[in-house]
Amino acid sequence: MKIKMMFVVLILTGLGIYAQDIRVEVSPGLVKCLPGVPVDIVINVTNAGKEDIWIAAESLSEGIRIKKNSYAGDNGETMNCYYPSPITVKIVPPTDCDGPIKDVIRFKAGETIKMYELVCPGCHCPVSRDLTGLWKGEIEVTMPIAEGVTISGIKKTVIVKEYMVEIQKLEEDDLAYLNAAKVWPNKPDPKVYYKGDYFYWKELFRPNIIPKEEIERMLNQEYAGSTYAGYQMLRHSPGDSLKYASKIDEIKFDMHINNNNKLFSAAEKEERRKAAKLRYSDFVNKARSFLVTHSDFPQEDLMRNAIAVALFYTDKPQEAWMEVETLAMMEGRFADDAKALLAERCQPPSPKKNPPID
Q: Which residues are CB-contacts of 349 (< 8 A; sequence separation ≥ 6)?
Protein backbone atom coordinates (compact mmCIF):
# COMPACT_ATOMS: atom_id res chain seq x y z
CA MET A 1 0.00 0.00 0.00
CA LYS A 2 1.23 3.49 -0.84
CA ILE A 3 2.66 5.50 2.03
CA LYS A 4 0.51 8.46 1.00
CA MET A 5 -2.45 6.35 2.10
CA MET A 6 -0.80 5.06 5.26
CA PHE A 7 0.84 7.97 7.02
CA VAL A 8 -2.41 9.75 7.86
CA VAL A 9 -3.56 6.86 10.02
CA LEU A 10 -0.52 6.73 12.27
CA ILE A 11 -1.25 9.04 15.17
CA LEU A 12 1.93 9.38 17.19
CA THR A 13 2.69 11.60 20.15
CA GLY A 14 5.87 13.61 20.50
CA LEU A 15 7.03 16.02 17.84
CA GLY A 16 10.71 15.18 18.02
CA ILE A 17 13.61 17.36 17.02
CA TYR A 18 12.20 17.95 13.53
CA ALA A 19 9.57 20.45 14.76
CA GLN A 20 12.44 22.73 15.75
CA ASP A 21 13.98 22.44 12.30
CA ILE A 22 10.82 23.31 10.36
CA ARG A 23 9.97 27.00 9.92
CA VAL A 24 6.49 28.04 8.74
CA GLU A 25 5.68 31.56 7.54
CA VAL A 26 2.22 32.81 6.55
CA SER A 27 1.66 35.89 4.41
CA PRO A 28 0.05 38.26 4.48
CA GLY A 29 0.27 38.34 8.25
CA LEU A 30 -2.93 40.41 8.23
CA VAL A 31 -5.69 39.36 5.82
CA LYS A 32 -8.30 42.05 5.10
CA CYS A 33 -11.59 40.94 3.59
CA LEU A 34 -15.36 41.09 3.76
CA PRO A 35 -17.21 38.27 5.53
CA GLY A 36 -17.79 35.15 3.46
CA VAL A 37 -15.32 35.79 0.63
CA PRO A 38 -12.41 33.49 -0.31
CA VAL A 39 -8.86 34.82 0.04
CA ASP A 40 -5.54 33.21 -0.85
CA ILE A 41 -2.77 33.07 1.75
CA VAL A 42 0.82 31.99 1.11
CA ILE A 43 2.44 29.37 3.32
CA ASN A 44 6.21 28.96 3.10
CA VAL A 45 7.55 25.81 4.75
CA THR A 46 11.34 25.73 5.21
CA ASN A 47 13.72 23.07 6.44
CA ALA A 48 15.76 25.42 8.63
CA GLY A 49 17.90 22.61 10.05
CA LYS A 50 21.37 21.54 8.97
CA GLU A 51 20.28 18.06 7.93
CA ASP A 52 18.07 16.80 5.11
CA ILE A 53 14.72 15.37 6.18
CA TRP A 54 12.94 12.49 4.50
CA ILE A 55 9.18 12.85 4.04
CA ALA A 56 7.05 9.74 3.57
CA ALA A 57 5.32 10.78 0.34
CA GLU A 58 5.86 10.87 -3.41
CA SER A 59 6.36 14.66 -3.41
CA LEU A 60 6.79 17.49 -0.91
CA SER A 61 3.51 19.11 -1.91
CA GLU A 62 1.76 15.81 -1.24
CA GLY A 63 3.51 15.08 2.05
CA ILE A 64 3.16 18.54 3.61
CA ARG A 65 -0.49 18.86 4.60
CA ILE A 66 -2.28 22.06 5.58
CA LYS A 67 -5.20 22.27 8.01
CA LYS A 68 -7.11 25.46 8.81
CA ASN A 69 -8.25 25.79 12.41
CA SER A 70 -11.09 27.96 13.68
CA TYR A 71 -10.77 31.72 14.21
CA ALA A 72 -10.76 33.33 17.64
CA GLY A 73 -11.55 36.90 18.66
CA ASP A 74 -9.81 39.06 21.25
CA ASN A 75 -12.60 38.42 23.76
CA GLY A 76 -12.26 34.65 23.50
CA GLU A 77 -15.19 34.35 21.09
CA THR A 78 -14.74 31.77 18.34
CA MET A 79 -16.00 31.85 14.78
CA ASN A 80 -17.22 28.28 15.07
CA CYS A 81 -20.49 28.83 13.23
CA TYR A 82 -20.33 25.62 11.27
CA TYR A 83 -19.34 22.28 12.69
CA PRO A 84 -18.07 19.97 9.95
CA SER A 85 -18.02 16.28 10.72
CA PRO A 86 -14.97 14.88 8.94
CA ILE A 87 -14.71 11.13 8.89
CA THR A 88 -11.66 10.09 10.86
CA VAL A 89 -10.50 6.58 10.17
CA LYS A 90 -7.76 5.10 12.34
CA ILE A 91 -6.27 1.91 11.02
CA VAL A 92 -3.37 0.47 12.95
CA PRO A 93 -1.54 -2.10 10.83
CA PRO A 94 -0.75 -5.40 12.57
CA THR A 95 2.80 -5.71 13.87
CA ASP A 96 3.54 -8.44 11.35
CA CYS A 97 2.58 -6.05 8.50
CA ASP A 98 5.19 -3.41 9.25
CA GLY A 99 6.40 -3.28 5.69
CA PRO A 100 9.05 -1.06 4.12
CA ILE A 101 8.34 2.58 3.27
CA LYS A 102 7.79 2.65 -0.48
CA ASP A 103 7.69 6.39 -1.19
CA VAL A 104 9.99 8.99 0.36
CA ILE A 105 11.12 12.42 -0.79
CA ARG A 106 14.10 14.44 0.40
CA PHE A 107 13.37 17.80 2.06
CA LYS A 108 16.79 19.38 1.70
CA ALA A 109 18.37 21.54 4.39
CA GLY A 110 17.60 25.17 3.59
CA GLU A 111 14.91 24.25 1.06
CA THR A 112 11.58 26.13 1.03
CA ILE A 113 8.34 24.95 -0.50
CA LYS A 114 5.71 27.57 -1.30
CA MET A 115 2.07 26.57 -0.89
CA TYR A 116 -1.22 28.40 -1.31
CA GLU A 117 -4.32 27.90 0.78
CA LEU A 118 -7.76 29.38 0.19
CA VAL A 119 -9.35 30.67 3.40
CA CYS A 120 -12.90 31.94 3.71
CA PRO A 121 -13.44 33.66 7.08
CA GLY A 122 -17.08 33.57 8.10
CA CYS A 123 -18.27 31.55 5.11
CA HIS A 124 -20.41 29.26 7.25
CA CYS A 125 -21.62 31.91 9.68
CA PRO A 126 -25.17 33.28 9.38
CA VAL A 127 -25.49 36.78 7.92
CA SER A 128 -27.36 37.72 11.09
CA ARG A 129 -24.02 37.55 12.93
CA ASP A 130 -21.78 40.62 12.74
CA LEU A 131 -18.20 39.41 12.26
CA THR A 132 -16.60 42.83 11.93
CA GLY A 133 -13.23 43.09 13.72
CA LEU A 134 -9.93 41.27 14.24
CA TRP A 135 -9.72 37.48 14.41
CA LYS A 136 -6.77 35.18 14.98
CA GLY A 137 -6.48 32.25 12.64
CA GLU A 138 -4.25 29.18 12.78
CA ILE A 139 -2.60 27.14 10.08
CA GLU A 140 -1.58 23.64 11.11
CA VAL A 141 1.19 22.11 9.01
CA THR A 142 1.60 18.35 9.27
CA MET A 143 4.21 16.13 7.69
CA PRO A 144 5.19 12.46 8.09
CA ILE A 145 8.91 12.21 8.83
CA ALA A 146 10.54 8.89 7.93
CA GLU A 147 13.04 8.04 10.68
CA GLY A 148 13.52 4.46 9.57
CA VAL A 149 12.93 2.21 6.60
CA THR A 150 9.62 0.71 7.77
CA ILE A 151 6.15 2.12 8.36
CA SER A 152 6.57 2.07 12.14
CA GLY A 153 9.39 4.59 11.76
CA ILE A 154 7.09 7.36 10.48
CA LYS A 155 6.74 10.24 12.94
CA LYS A 156 3.98 12.82 12.62
CA THR A 157 5.34 16.36 13.01
CA VAL A 158 2.91 19.25 13.54
CA ILE A 159 3.71 22.97 13.45
CA VAL A 160 1.04 25.59 14.17
CA LYS A 161 1.37 29.14 12.84
CA GLU A 162 -0.90 32.07 13.65
CA TYR A 163 -2.05 34.91 11.38
CA MET A 164 -4.61 37.70 11.72
CA VAL A 165 -7.81 38.37 9.79
CA GLU A 166 -9.54 41.75 9.75
CA ILE A 167 -13.14 41.36 8.65
CA GLN A 168 -14.20 44.71 7.35
CA LYS A 169 -17.50 46.47 7.88
CA LEU A 170 -19.91 46.45 4.95
CA GLU A 171 -20.59 49.90 3.55
CA GLU A 172 -22.37 51.53 0.60
CA ASP A 173 -23.00 49.04 -2.24
CA ASP A 174 -21.88 46.04 -0.14
CA LEU A 175 -24.30 46.92 2.66
CA ALA A 176 -27.10 47.73 0.21
CA TYR A 177 -26.66 44.35 -1.47
CA LEU A 178 -26.63 42.54 1.88
CA ASN A 179 -29.92 44.19 2.89
CA ALA A 180 -31.50 43.23 -0.44
CA ALA A 181 -30.22 39.66 -0.20
CA LYS A 182 -31.46 39.18 3.38
CA VAL A 183 -35.03 39.49 2.16
CA TRP A 184 -34.86 36.23 0.22
CA PRO A 185 -34.82 33.60 3.01
CA ASN A 186 -38.17 34.91 4.24
CA LYS A 187 -39.92 34.89 0.88
CA PRO A 188 -42.64 32.27 0.29
CA ASP A 189 -40.66 30.85 -2.61
CA PRO A 190 -40.59 27.05 -3.15
CA LYS A 191 -36.95 27.35 -4.27
CA VAL A 192 -35.95 28.53 -0.78
CA TYR A 193 -35.18 25.51 1.36
CA TYR A 194 -33.33 27.18 4.23
CA LYS A 195 -34.49 29.91 6.55
CA GLY A 196 -33.14 32.32 9.12
CA ASP A 197 -29.80 31.31 10.61
CA TYR A 198 -29.15 28.88 7.77
CA PHE A 199 -28.55 31.81 5.42
CA TYR A 200 -24.75 31.94 5.49
CA TRP A 201 -22.42 34.72 4.35
CA LYS A 202 -21.16 32.50 1.52
CA GLU A 203 -24.66 32.47 0.01
CA LEU A 204 -24.36 36.13 -1.03
CA PHE A 205 -22.83 35.18 -4.38
CA ARG A 206 -23.67 31.49 -4.67
CA PRO A 207 -27.01 30.32 -6.11
CA ASN A 208 -28.29 28.18 -3.25
CA ILE A 209 -30.86 30.14 -1.29
CA ILE A 210 -31.16 33.07 -3.68
CA PRO A 211 -32.08 31.96 -7.23
CA LYS A 212 -29.21 32.18 -9.71
CA GLU A 213 -31.09 34.58 -11.97
CA GLU A 214 -31.80 36.95 -9.08
CA ILE A 215 -28.16 36.98 -7.89
CA GLU A 216 -26.99 37.77 -11.40
CA ARG A 217 -29.58 40.52 -11.84
CA MET A 218 -28.74 42.21 -8.54
CA LEU A 219 -24.96 41.99 -8.87
CA ASN A 220 -24.82 42.80 -12.58
CA GLN A 221 -27.25 45.72 -12.43
CA GLU A 222 -28.41 47.18 -9.12
CA TYR A 223 -25.30 46.46 -7.03
CA ALA A 224 -22.57 46.16 -9.66
CA GLY A 225 -20.33 48.31 -7.46
CA SER A 226 -20.39 45.77 -4.65
CA THR A 227 -17.26 43.74 -3.90
CA TYR A 228 -19.44 40.63 -4.02
CA ALA A 229 -20.12 41.44 -7.69
CA GLY A 230 -16.47 40.61 -8.43
CA TYR A 231 -16.84 37.10 -7.06
CA GLN A 232 -20.04 36.62 -9.04
CA MET A 233 -18.18 37.84 -12.14
CA LEU A 234 -15.46 35.22 -11.63
CA ARG A 235 -18.10 32.49 -11.77
CA HIS A 236 -18.56 33.38 -15.46
CA SER A 237 -14.87 33.64 -16.34
CA PRO A 238 -13.25 31.16 -18.77
CA GLY A 239 -11.62 29.28 -15.89
CA ASP A 240 -8.77 27.68 -17.85
CA SER A 241 -5.04 27.96 -17.21
CA LEU A 242 -2.92 30.64 -18.87
CA LYS A 243 -0.67 28.01 -20.41
CA TYR A 244 -3.60 26.25 -22.07
CA ALA A 245 -5.17 29.50 -23.25
CA SER A 246 -1.91 30.84 -24.70
CA LYS A 247 -1.81 27.88 -27.10
CA ILE A 248 -5.45 28.01 -28.11
CA ASP A 249 -6.53 27.04 -31.60
CA GLU A 250 -9.90 26.32 -33.15
CA ILE A 251 -9.90 22.65 -32.14
CA LYS A 252 -9.03 23.41 -28.50
CA PHE A 253 -11.54 26.25 -28.40
CA ASP A 254 -14.28 23.95 -29.68
CA MET A 255 -13.42 21.49 -26.92
CA HIS A 256 -13.53 24.33 -24.37
CA ILE A 257 -17.08 25.35 -25.34
CA ASN A 258 -18.25 21.75 -25.94
CA ASN A 259 -18.57 22.50 -29.63
CA ASN A 260 -17.30 19.15 -30.87
CA ASN A 261 -20.72 17.50 -30.94
CA LYS A 262 -21.22 15.82 -34.31
CA LEU A 263 -24.89 16.88 -34.28
CA PHE A 264 -23.90 20.54 -34.74
CA SER A 265 -23.72 21.75 -38.31
CA ALA A 266 -20.81 23.91 -39.46
CA ALA A 267 -23.04 26.99 -39.27
CA GLU A 268 -24.17 26.13 -35.72
CA LYS A 269 -20.60 25.63 -34.59
CA GLU A 270 -19.61 29.01 -35.96
CA GLU A 271 -22.55 30.67 -34.19
CA ARG A 272 -21.54 29.03 -30.91
CA ARG A 273 -17.96 30.27 -31.34
CA LYS A 274 -19.19 33.81 -31.96
CA ALA A 275 -21.49 33.68 -28.92
CA ALA A 276 -18.70 32.41 -26.65
CA LYS A 277 -16.25 35.05 -27.84
CA LEU A 278 -18.86 37.78 -27.39
CA ARG A 279 -19.49 36.53 -23.85
CA TYR A 280 -15.77 36.57 -23.00
CA SER A 281 -15.31 39.99 -24.58
CA ASP A 282 -18.12 41.29 -22.36
CA PHE A 283 -16.42 39.68 -19.34
CA VAL A 284 -13.14 41.48 -20.13
CA ASN A 285 -14.85 44.87 -20.28
CA LYS A 286 -16.77 44.33 -17.04
CA ALA A 287 -13.78 42.86 -15.18
CA ARG A 288 -11.51 45.73 -16.15
CA SER A 289 -14.10 48.30 -15.09
CA PHE A 290 -14.56 46.47 -11.80
CA LEU A 291 -10.83 46.49 -11.01
CA VAL A 292 -10.62 50.24 -11.66
CA THR A 293 -13.02 50.85 -8.75
CA HIS A 294 -11.82 47.91 -6.62
CA SER A 295 -8.03 48.18 -6.62
CA ASP A 296 -7.90 46.25 -3.32
CA PHE A 297 -9.96 43.29 -4.56
CA PRO A 298 -8.61 40.25 -2.62
CA GLN A 299 -8.51 38.02 -5.69
CA GLU A 300 -7.19 40.54 -8.20
CA ASP A 301 -4.61 38.05 -9.46
CA LEU A 302 -7.36 35.56 -10.28
CA MET A 303 -9.39 38.27 -12.02
CA ARG A 304 -6.42 39.38 -14.14
CA ASN A 305 -5.67 35.74 -14.95
CA ALA A 306 -9.25 35.36 -16.19
CA ILE A 307 -8.96 38.56 -18.25
CA ALA A 308 -5.80 37.28 -19.97
CA VAL A 309 -7.41 33.90 -20.71
CA ALA A 310 -10.49 35.61 -22.15
CA LEU A 311 -8.31 37.79 -24.37
CA PHE A 312 -6.52 34.73 -25.75
CA TYR A 313 -9.96 33.22 -26.47
CA THR A 314 -11.19 36.35 -28.27
CA ASP A 315 -8.25 36.38 -30.69
CA LYS A 316 -6.34 39.21 -28.99
CA PRO A 317 -3.01 37.54 -28.17
CA GLN A 318 -0.95 40.75 -28.08
CA GLU A 319 -3.32 42.31 -25.54
CA ALA A 320 -3.40 39.03 -23.61
CA TRP A 321 0.39 38.92 -23.28
CA MET A 322 0.34 42.47 -21.92
CA GLU A 323 -2.08 41.29 -19.22
CA VAL A 324 0.18 38.32 -18.49
CA GLU A 325 3.11 40.71 -17.98
CA THR A 326 1.01 42.87 -15.63
CA LEU A 327 -0.06 39.77 -13.70
CA ALA A 328 3.54 38.55 -13.42
CA MET A 329 4.45 41.72 -11.49
CA MET A 330 1.90 40.89 -8.80
CA GLU A 331 1.92 38.35 -5.96
CA GLY A 332 -0.20 35.22 -5.72
CA ARG A 333 -0.61 31.74 -7.17
CA PHE A 334 -1.84 33.06 -10.54
CA ALA A 335 0.99 35.59 -10.64
CA ASP A 336 3.39 32.67 -10.20
CA ASP A 337 1.75 30.94 -13.17
CA ALA A 338 2.23 34.10 -15.25
CA LYS A 339 5.92 34.32 -14.29
CA ALA A 340 6.42 30.67 -15.28
CA LEU A 341 4.64 31.18 -18.61
CA LEU A 342 6.75 34.23 -19.47
CA ALA A 343 9.93 32.37 -18.55
CA GLU A 344 8.90 29.49 -20.79
CA ARG A 345 8.08 31.87 -23.63
CA CYS A 346 11.51 33.50 -23.41
CA GLN A 347 13.38 30.22 -23.57
CA PRO A 348 14.95 29.44 -26.95
CA PRO A 349 13.51 26.39 -28.70
CA SER A 350 15.29 23.12 -28.10
CA PRO A 351 17.76 22.30 -30.87
CA LYS A 352 16.51 19.71 -33.31
CA LYS A 353 18.38 16.44 -33.25
CA ASN A 354 19.71 15.18 -36.53
CA PRO A 355 18.20 11.89 -37.65
CA PRO A 356 20.46 8.90 -37.17
CA ILE A 357 22.62 7.99 -40.12
CA ASP A 358 22.23 4.43 -41.30
A: none
